[in-house]
Design goal:
Helix content is 18%, strand content 24%. It is elongated, with a radius of gyration of 24 Å. The structure holds flavin-adenine dinucleotide (FAD). The site of flavin-adenine dinucleotide has 40 residues, from helix 1 and helix 6.
Length: 380
């Protein structure tokens, strides 16, 4: 079996950037792209407006195609599979050892990693870059898949801008959900944070900030049971959109199934039941509202909104690594400070599978660059 210098696992912005650097450096990287979603998370989105170099924005799939073309141009080899396991081999004696020794026969003494793919194929490499990203946890309610990218979002930084002056719902009760909700108050006419429990997991300071924000309403003990969209029977015109029958906090239309105010609104900014407020003008196939249920009383209701931001956590795609490298309790790969070295020499990690904070295409790409340079230094 041929021993490769380096195999990159994952074909998002982190993986492609690492591939561009390594192939330009002459290291002939092999990229295992992922069987189902080559190109990573951005192939599932439409407009990307915050990736530098594209003043008019670029479609996510087009951006990823361009990254792939750039990596291919310099000699990256692609394998459209999933990696199922990575192990360090005890010795390299059965390998083609052209990478093991210098011309004078000096051994590098570096370990060799064997990657097993879902096809059964095996790859051996001197270094491995893990760039497998993470997946957003989903609500699993009707309408979520259908309106994903059309009002249902998992990234406030990415999509908040598209919902200026429209009512927004955020689902979640941790710090991330509160951060996203507070951030979204810059854009939305109102933001309602919905949490299934009575207590929030977020830090006290975040909850205080949220309570102090007039645009933000906390709705505790409540779950979203369905997401609706499309063009309602009587679509209001743009001028109708400003019609307000009863101005109230939140800019929402909240129709409660039971007595007005029967739903628990948490101990944040209270809103009354039976309010009638401006409807955002929906476009075809976009979110118009949600169904909700009180987890304590069982009461049901509906809430008019143009966007549902789901902030209930992420799952890094790192299970296949087993115990090869150290991870935190949620499965994020641990790296040394600003670098990309994992606890296992020769294994590097970059992008959303490491980063629980920034989770952006550009930050993943930047880390992919660092992983390539770290791997290069390791192999030198
Ligand atoms: C709907 C949506 C819209 C977004 N919009 C923006 C935006 O506008 N701007 C922005 O900056 N960011 C945006 N983001 C976030 C951005 O997409 C991510 O931060 C970025 O893609 C992370 O890059 P990555 O390379 O770390 O991983 P990913 O893009 O997640 O790529 C990981 C890759 O690894 C592969 N993989 C996983 N497991 C394996 C395995 N076992 N074997 C082989 N391959 C594997 C996957 O198939 C995938 O190709 C958005 C995200 C979503 C979901």
């Amino acid at each position: 079996m041929t021993l490769r210098h380096v195999v990159i696992i994952g074909s998002g912005p982190a993986g492609y950037t690492a591939a561009i650097y390594l192939s330009r450096a002459g290291l002939r990287p092999v990229m295992v792209t992922g069987a189902l979603t080559p190109g990573g998370q951005l192939v599932n989105t439409t407009e990307v407006e915050n990736y530098p170099g594209f003043p008019d924005g670029i479609l996510g799939p087009d951006l990823m195609d361009a990254m792939k073309a750039q990596a291919e141009k310099f000699g990256t080899e692609f394998i459209p599979s999933d990696v199922e396991s990575v192990v360090e081999l005890p010795s390299t004696s059965d390998l083609d050892t052209d990478l093991d020794t210098d011309a004078d026969g000096t051994s590098h003494g570096k370990p060799t990693f064997r990657l097993t793919l879902d096809t059964g194929e095996e790859l051996d490499a001197r270094a491995v870059i893990v760039a497998t990203g993470s997946t957003y946890r989903k609500l699993g309610v009707p309408g979520e898949e259908k309106y994903s990218g059309h009002g249902v979002s998992y990234c406030a930084t990415c999509d908040g801008f598209f919902f200026r002056n429209k009512p927004i719902v955020v689902v979640g009760g941790g710090d991330s959900a509160f951060e996203e909700a507070l951030y979204l108050t810059r854009f939305g006419s109102s933001v309602t944070l919905i949490h299934r429990r009575g207590e929030f997991r977020a830090s006290a300071i975040m909850v205080e900030r949220a309570r102090a924000n007039e645009k933000l309403t906390l709705l505790a003990d409540t779950v979203v049971t369905a997401i609706h969209g499309g063009v309602p029977a009587a679509t209001p015109s743009a001028s109708d959109a400003s019609t307000v029958s009863a101005p109230a906090p939140g800019g929402l239309k909240l129709n409660l199934g039971g007595p007005a105010g029967g739903l628990s609104l948490g101990d944040g900014n209270a809103i009354g039941g039976g309010l009638s407020l401006p409807l955002a003008v929906p476009t075809a196939g976009e979110v118009t509202g949600i169904d909700i249920r009180n987890t304590v009383t069982g009461e049901t209701g509906t809430l008019t909104t143009s966007a549902v931001f789901v902030a209930i956590g992420h799952t890094p795609a790192t299970g296949f690594l087993g115990g090869l490298v150290d991870k935190d309790g949620d499965g994020y790969v641990l790296v040394d400070g600003a670098g990309t070295c994992t606890s296992h020499p020769g294994v590097f990690a970059a992008g959303d599978c490491v980063d629980r904070v920034y989770r952006q295409a550009i930050s993943a790409a930047g880390m992919g660059c660092r992983a390539a340079l770290d791997a290069q230094a390791y192999l030198a």
